[in-house]
Specification:
Layout: E1 2-7, H1 13-27, E2 33-38, H2 50-58, H3 75-78, E3 81-84, H4 87-96, H5 100-104, E4 106-108, H6 125-139
Parallel strand pairs: 1-2, 1-3, 3-4
Helix pairs in contact: 1-6
The chain binds 4-nitrophenyl phosphate.
Enzyme class: hydrolase
Pfam family, one: LMWPc
Protein name: protein-tyrosine-phosphatase
């Protein structure tokens, strides 16, 4: 299984989803591939936001080596599932879908809830981490 986590900037939320999912995949001995990307292009090549690195580190997950990239249409071919954080990410990714098969790969990480953008509110990083962890745990088979 190949999973892509997507948010707007690929520096706050999707790097957390990427790191948390990778740690769960390892913990459960799954041979899955995980990556993340942003719909926007502002931060390409950058490491995650220092506040995301810090909150992940607090809970034992190292995301410091990740490197921001932009979502590309070919991601629809490579990945089996594409998880987005909020409805605007959902609209942006679906807008790039070429057909129904592409569309069917795209889901909100939390299904009925949205993961808020913490970029302008540092107090959101801890609750966002917890929400993303809950979403990632649901993806593990048997959960
Ligand atoms: P993210 O947060 O989508 O969770 O990575 C953001 C990071 C940067 C920007 C927006 C959202 N930005 O506009 O630069």
């Amino acid at each position: 299984m190949k999973i892509l986590m997507v948010c707007l900037g690929n520096i706050c939320r999707s790097p957390l989803a990427h790191g948390i999912m990778e740690s769960l995949v390892e913990k459960h001995g799954l041979n899955w591939e995980v990556d993340s990307a942003g719909t926007g292009n502002w931060h390409i090549g950058e490491a995650p936001d220092s506040r995301s690195i810090a909150i992940a580190k607090k809970y034992g997950v190292d995301i410091s080596k990740q490197c921001c990239r932009q979502f590309r249409v070919s991601d629809f071919d490579y990945y089996d599932r594409i998880y987005v954080m909020d409805k605007s990410n959902l609209a942006d990714v679906l807008n790039l879908a070429r057909n129904m098969a592409d569309e069917e790969k795209v889901k909100l990480l939390l299904d009925t809830e949205v993961v808020p953008d913490p970029y302008y509110d540092h107090k959101l990083f801890d609750p966002v981490y917890q929400m993303i962890k809950r979403g990632c745990e649901r993806i593990i088979p048997g959960n």
